[in-house]
Amino acid sequence: MDRSIERALGVQRVLEPAGVLPQAAIRLDADPSVGPDEVRIAVERLNLDAASFRQLSEACGGDGDAVRAAVLEIIEARGKMQNPVTGSGGMLIGVVDAVGPESPLGLVPGQRVATLVSLSLTPLRITDGLARWNGRSEQVPATGSAILFGRSIAAVLPDDLPDMVSLALLDVCGAPAATARVVERSGARSVTVLGAAGKSGSLSLAAARAAGATALTGVVRTAAEAAALTAAGLADRVVVADATDPLAVAAAVGQPGDVTVVCVDAQGAEHGAVLATAEGGTVVFFSMATSFSAAALGAEGMAADVTMLIGNGYTPGHAAMALELYRRNQGVRALIDPRVRPTGPHDPRVHA
Amino acid sequence: MDRSIERALGVQRVLEPAGVLPQAAIRLDADPSVGPDEVRIAVERLNLDAASFRQLSEACGGDGDAVRAAVLEIIEARGKMQNPVTGSGGMLIGVVDAVGPESPLGLVPGQRVATLVSLSLTPLRITDGLARWNGRSEQVPATGSAILFGRSIAAVLPDDLPDMVSLALLDVCGAPAATARVVERSGARSVTVLGAAGKSGSLSLAAARAAGATALTGVVRTAAEAAALTAAGLADRVVVADATDPLAVAAAVGQPGDVTVVCVDAQGAEHGAVLATAEGGTVVFFSMATSFSAAALGAEGMAADVTMLIGNGYTPGHAAMALELYRRNQGVRALIDPRVRPTGPHDPRVHA
Q: Listing from the earlier edge strand, what are the strands of the sheet with B90-99?
């Protein structure tokens, strides 16, 4: 493999162990000096992966100060924000600060961007001790620097949407894009989404509809979520079940569907998803809490002839698709807006 | 969900926690009394999952007595052989001992069978303390009882093959069946197999060829494996690389292929597999050492537009296909036979 590809993947930033890619590294070099094909971002805000934030909160007993200390310690020790338990990271927004002369990303200093590669492989240095964060939300106001590689992806933040909305959409934009692709390629008509009232869930429902699905079932956890999803009109049928209780999911869904999309961030949703899927159907796992062995052995153990996909966070065009689904779809907006504090790019709360 | 389906999935055997399926259970009831749709097997031999055996061996520093004690402790504590670290189990062979009046499996007392559902969900009781096992091989001579559910799968052992060969083939029969299906459905021509000289790897190469692939690359770890695979004639090209070194894999494979099948049982093969796969291609993960987050976030981090499949151990017809590939293909036999001690059903070594 030639050296320029290694550099594009960020191998020069790996301190330990040698030979792995940044995502698998224990420790990265977060030095803010940019290499010839690198880009530096002045960080404004981190958006922690939901599964990661949940794990940290639970481990710290909900103590926000302890969560903040734990996140700082991870970033300092690893040179990146990768939760050692979940393996996941999140994403960030910031301003392009320096662009190496050979960077292929087409970014220009001063542009406000969101990174679309995981924090779990992004060299990151924090300089404000996360002093503006109370440790109680996935959204982390932060000052510092992050590095993008030649093969990284960043989206310029759109002018027409508040930052927090763009960040929320871009964070999960892999899910609707992959859902649309699976529905289009398989010709699926019935699609079930577990965790349907959340960000990735609501976008996946809208994407499935746009791709031609005609029988959409949304599975949610609570009556309040059911009411919100019903009002949003994104699903043809809304049912309430604990996604981690496979028999409850199967009972609530009834007739299994062609495609099941798993958007819950809790462990243990694999078996319910398999039971909710018809023979010959497909399960798309987007939750970072998914267990490979639970899915593989569970399906085998139930003699379930289903195709199971590891949700790839990257599909060409994914960012634009998520933003468009939000702009065009009032139901998506109705579900996502309450989950973010809508603040414009110049709203003082963003930089407070 | 009606009660008969719950029973068919073995829910009545779950002691802890309530509401999960047997694979996700911490503890199963391994009572040898059979329920109306259950089948009891008199156990002769366990075949531990490769990733599980490797983890236990490493944790015990290669001390066979310690490995045996650890396996016994797991089975006693959990009522099943499920490695708590890898989540995986293995399979077993034995003789049908009791058949409940409502069992749909069509088994008859006295038949010698292999279970095709994972040990990680099979109620298991061991009565000989694994006294005949030295803890140094995945193949565990054992006496005891195991329970199959209504929706379990078991294959009657064929008369024409030694037990150890059948067990070895049936253990990995999901891999060639899924590989064949992916090649057929996608029309893939170039297929790369990581871990190509092993059981699942050699069968997957043969299955890909039979399904129409015309450019097969086998990636192996050592020169000795390369020589064996070359002699077997299953691949058009054999290259040597450490599958856990992504840059080495990419360099060895060169031009990325349409489909990559991961059959290595070591951690860290996700990124090499993604780099070895062309844009728009498919990676099929069969290794139980696969990390969901490493695959999902790694592909995203490399902006790799690849479809990633969780290898489902069940595909209709998988057992018969694996046995047929072995019978018809001298290259497969040449690679698999040295990995098993060929012993006939009545060979004293089996029951020694």
A: B124-126, B139-148, B39-48, B90-99, B112-115, B154-156
